[in-house]
Amino acid sequence: MQKLQKEPEQVAKIAESLNVNEGDLFRDFDLSTFMSHFQLDDISKTALALACRSASKADLRTKGESNALEFL
Fold first, then answer.
1. How many domains does the chain have?
2. What share of the chain is helix, strand, coil (3-state, %, to 5)?
């Protein structure tokens, strides 16, 4: 997570990792809490939220959209 500021391509990798359909690990995932936990700056939060907007999981897309709008 700390690489986000120096290596922006990591954002897509993180979003892809969150976009898993296996098990219940990310079923009740809270993107906002996740970003706060890692103390991301606003630019990193926005980049991650925008990357989540292209997820195949509808709930992650919705969370990405709402978080992206918060930081824009």
1. 1
2. 60, 0, 40
